[in-house]
Specification:
Blueprint lengths: L1 H11 L5 E2 L13 E4 L10 H19 L3 H15 L2 H7 L6 H8 L10 H10 L4 E5 L4 H11 L8 E3 L12 H10 L6 E5 L2 H10 L3 E5 L8 E3 L5 H11 L1
Parallel strand pairs: 2-3, 2-5, 3-4, 5-6, 6-7
Antiparallel strand pairs: 1-7
The structure holds magnesium ion.
Magnesium ion binds next to loops.
Length: 242
């Protein structure tokens, strides 16, 4: 129903920062699987939560390298800017790759997050025709905890790929390749959705997935959405235009 598509586009158009169609637009109707980052994607990270996680990270680096907190912070930020991934940064510093997961898991997220009925509704209604796979650099324990706090059932997801399941975390392509193994379908039938270009968008594109950047604007991703709740309207628009 082409007319219904036009209504949707006009209705939701103002919420989307930008949608760039690519030469592969005719393939967009084949999208079946959504690959979700969790932290900073399924919820918008608050400055308080980010600060709490960073504090725990720097504290652990300082202890691990036997340097001051400030020195630990400085070393982390310089390398992180270069490498783009927190776990990759920790490994480069010569520390245990579990450090980030431990730092994230040590923060009590119930202080910062709460059940999200709009998000639950999005998965159960607007996105019910897609299969969902989580691809996160967080530990399995931390991932399950976050889903519980947000009120999302694990049953919504065909698979959950965490830092515990791979040798190399994002921005490596390994976690995304694991997701492809789970669905068993070609990369072009997947959309990676995340809040960071270097870890969620670029490696997924390298494998041939479509990409949606959330909570901001990206020139790298196939589309950007102002909030995670706008993802269904982006997908609907793609389907209409395909
Ligand atoms: Mg994220």
């Amino acid at each position: 129903m082409k007319s219904a598509c036009y209504v949707t586009i006009l209705h939701y158009g103002y919420q989307i920062d930008s949608v760039r169609m690519t030469s592969g637009a005719n393939k967009l109707k084949d999208v079946r699987h959504l690959i979700w980052d969790i932290d900073g994607t399924l919820y918008k990270s608050t400055p308080d939560l980010i600060e709490a996680i960073r504090h725990e990270t720097y504290r652990r680096i300082a202890t691990g390298l036997n340097i001051s907190y400030e020195e630990a912070r400085r070393k982390f930020l310089i390398l992180y800017d270069k490498l783009g991934g927190a776990t990759a940064t920790i490994v480069q510093l010569g520390l245990d790759r579990d450090l980030i997961q431990k730092a994230v898991d040590s923060v009590d997220k119930t202080k910062y997050l709460k059940p999200d009925l709009q998000l639950q509704d999005m998965f159960e209604v607007a996105l019910r025709d897609f299969t969902h796979v989580i691809v996160t650099n967080t530990s399995r324990q931390g991932t399950i905890r976050t889903l519980e706090i947000l009120g999302l059932s694990r049953d919504l997801f065909l698979g959950i790929v965490t830092a515990d399941d791979v040798l190399r975390s994002k921005p490596d392509t390994e976690p995304f390749e694991r997701a492809l193994n789970i669905t068993g379908d070609p990369a072009g039938q997947h959309v990676s959705i995340g809040d960071r270009e270097k870890v969620d968008i670029t490696p997924a594109k390298m494998l041939g997935m479509k990409t949606i950047f959330v909570w901001g604007t990206s020139q790298v991703a196939d589309a950007s959405a102002s909030t995670v709740y706008d993802v269904p309207s982006v997908l609907k628009r793609w389907k209409c235009w395909a």
